[in-house]
Amino acid sequence: MEIEKFYYDNKIVRNFAWATVIWGVVGMLVGLIAALQLIWPVFNFELPYTTFGRIRPLHTNAVIFAFVGNGIFTGLYYSLQRLCKARMFSDLLSNINFWGWQLIIVAAAVSLPLGFTTSKEYAELEWPIDIAITILWVVFGINMMGTIIKRREKHIYVAIWFFIATFVTVAVLHIVNSFEMPVSFMKSYSMYAGVQDALVQWWYGHNAVAFFLTTPYLGLMYYFIPKAANRPVYSYRLSIIHFWALIFLYIWAGPHHLLYTALPNWAQSLGTVFSIMLIAPSWGGMINGLLTLRGAWDKVRESVVLKFMVVAVTAYGMATFEGPMLSLKNVNAISHFTDWTIAHVHVGALGWNGFLTFGILYWLMPRLYRTELFSKKLAGFHFWIGTIGILFYAIPMYWAGFTQSLMWKEFTADGFLKYPNFLETVTQIVPMYRLRAVGGGLYLIGVIVMVYNLYRTAKSGNLLANEEAEAPALAKQPVLHNPGEHWHRRLERKPVMMLVFSLIMILIGGMVEMIPTFLVKENIPTISSVKPYTPLELEGRDIYIREGCYNCHSQMVRPFRSETERYGEYSKAGEFVYDHPFLWGSKRTGPDLHRVGGKYPDSWHFNHMEDPTSMSPGSLMPSYPWLIENQLDVENLPKKISVMQKLGVPYPDGYEKTQARTDLDHQAAAIAGRLSKDGIEVMADREIIALIAYLQRLGTDIKAEPKTASN
Amino acid sequence: MKFITYLETISGIGIYPLVSLLIFFLFFVILFVRVIFMDKTFINEMGQLPLEDNKDGNETMLGI
Fold it and tell me: Is A244 on the interface with B (CB under 8 A)?
């Protein structure tokens, strides 16, 4: 058998590793700023670019796609080459993957603070960036599949299956959720509306967690834990079951983000059932990771790498137990819209993704630079301060979530809400927000210490850019086809077949969930009095989206007495049929706004947007003085109307030509007139007028409904 | 893109979740049985894949 000599590309791994570290610091720093904003609104700096509504998506995107994204590529480019006994398929594609990904991150970091957003969580980036992501993902896919195809190892190790499933599923998720119709460069409307948009978004949102934050990291777990512990995975059999069960089940669980909403009931139940079943593969995976260390626990005491990995896998286990619990309707009734969700995701992000990344980096960097880690003491310090940071983050957030939820739901003996003023339930948990910021701060200090440690490590060594290796060529090994062999063994040699199988698996779930909602009219009972937004309201809605109001305000009154008492009638599916995109939100840092229309006079909204504390003393909401100064940009109005028409919103034919503009001016003048009566002089062409028009419209349509129709 | 109007009704929508549950259950049982009966030496071989380039045991720890 002829032995071939080849070289692993370590330079690309190094590049991704440093990008992981740098974006990690940036993303977490932005997160810390967002945490401070929720304690002292002064940290919003009264600038449009730095308000919470724009900073929060920047934080989530930076951590998910910049920090974890680069972390995935770091571990994947390192392990894939070694598991395939081959250099990456193409150095050019590797470099395009690297620089393209960084460019997309920069585009996100610029466009999100500027207010360019689709409003869909973790998919906020506008359509040109969406297209760039698609192209880049294909580049990555070609590079990965190419490497697997030209490998020198006969079998495909389980880590690679997770990588393949990640590639194919993220592609499907991203494309399906990004169907949007451009209005202009950097502005688009989702092709789906209301309930359908919500279903697609949370099918995406949940599976972004599954296939971006989980499956690739499980791949890394299956490679790096055996590596660091120097022993094979506890049960390879279990890993096969783990893989297939996990990818099959995960894709169904999305609707658990929409429990008690206007989503059809059968879809909610489906989401819950599959979420509960997910405990099995998730815990199978966790046990497999932890038991890999059987008989090697003494090493955990000495090795900071293993310490990080053990905590990471434990956090994975906790988060994946908690997730199914949160998808039970009775638990979700308490947890949803509160900081409980924030605690849950941070156990995952800080514990699972963060700590596994740190463990891998501490293991990897000394190897890439052919030296010893600069300081084991500092790495140990990082481990402990990071762990304490997670506790200081998560525990106060659980506390805050419970407290606020119970306050929302508490009635007096006479049957009135005990805390009718929403703000009371917010000021109550501010001390928890302070502790959370401390936790986040500690965690970030640990990361900064790691940066120094890794920098000094790199300085003391020199990069082994091309690592020499040898292996026999695959083609020269005995015949591949063997009729009597095990089916899975065959699958393990055929990457494309694996890709297709994974694709079929996830498509079954996605299609069964979504197609009925698209096809069946009876799933979305229409309400005859629900009409399209007026041109001014549509513009106001776009300002609501631009400012990221949905980050703190839901538009979804759930059918609980505590909510109908507080906000008004519960939300019906038919009310959202013209909402491109839907704006239900996922967190109530402020009150729900679905029934805010007509609740306050126009002047209240004006004063509140100028300075929230003038209307609600102690409010944590940032001020929006620029809405009063900025002239409303109506240049794209005709295009917006015609795009909406194409999406099925029944504006009259030719409405966009002149009538839309006339209606807009008319409505704006009326609002300016009402404000003037209350002693507020403002020109009718300001942005605030449009926003007030939208807020006053919210949830009012059904009030015009004749009493016969119901949901 | 008026998705809602392509078809007016599908009768028996409840069959969707039921069928999907069944598909998964059958798949899972078959997978489970087949994995149980997989060849042990092959399983061990697969588990060793990441460790093949660990030439000596101490190298992996590098003291950290």
Answer: yes
Residue A252 has pLDDT above 50, yes or no: yes
- Residue A509: its pLDDT value, please? 74
Three-state secondary-structure class, residue B56? coil
Closest by alpha carbon to A407, among A385, A391, A423? A423
Contact of A579 with A538, CB cutoff 8 Å:
no
Answer for the pair A684, A631: CB distance below 8 angstroms, yes or no.
Answer: no
* CA–CA distance, A44 with A545 (Å, rounded to integer): 18
User: What percent of chain A is modeled with pLDDT above 90?
Assistant: 79
A193-244 pLDDT tens trace: 888 899 889 989 998 889 999 999 999 999 999 999 999 999 999 999 999 9
Which token pair is A232?
Answer: 């094979």
How close is the nearest chain A Cα to the Cα of B38, in Å?
Answer: 8
Q: At residue B58, does pLDDT exceed 50?
A: no
The pLDDT assigned to B61 comes to 44
User: Cβ of A516 under 8 Å from any chain B Cβ?
Assistant: yes
Three-class SS state of A587: strand
Lowest-confidence segment of A183-192, A263-272, A404-413 by average pLDDT: A263-272
Alpha helix positions (H), A369-429: 376-409, 422-427
CA–CA separation, A161 and A487 (whole Å): 15
The shortest CB-CB distance from A520 to any of B7, B20, B42 is to B7
Q: Which two tokens stand for residue A673?
A: 């007139």
B26 contact residues in A (CB cutoff 8 A): none
B11 chain-A contacts, CB cut-off 8 A: none
Whether A226 sits inside 8 A of B51 (CB atoms) is yes
Chain A: closest CA distance from residue B60 (Å): 6
The amino acid sitting at A616 is S
CA dist., res. A240 & res. A252, Å (int): 20
Nearest to residue A239, comparing CAs of A289, A275, A165?
A: A289
Which residue of chain B has the CA closest to A509? B20
The pLDDT of residue B14: 63
Smallest Cβ–Cβ distance between A516 and the set B16, B24, B54 belongs to B16
Give the CA distances from residue A322 to residues A68, A319, A334, in Å, rounded to whole numbers and listed in that order: 21, 5, 14
Write the single-letter amino acid at A508. Answer: I
Q: pTM for the complete prediction? A: 0.92
3-state helix, strand, coil in chain A (%, to 5): 65, 5, 30
Average pLDDT for A531-537: 95
A82 phi and psi angles, rounded to 5 deg: -75, -35
Give the residues across from A471 on adjacent strands. Answer: A4
Of B3, B38, B54, the CB nearest to A518: B3
Beta-carbon contacts of A454 under 8 Å, excluding residues fewer than 6 positions away, are A21, A361, A362, A365, A374
* Cα first-last separation, chain B: 57
Residue B44 Cα to chain centre, angstroms = 19
Of B6, B28, B64, nearest to A303 by CB-CB distance is: B64
- pLDDT band (50, 70, 90) for residue A485: low
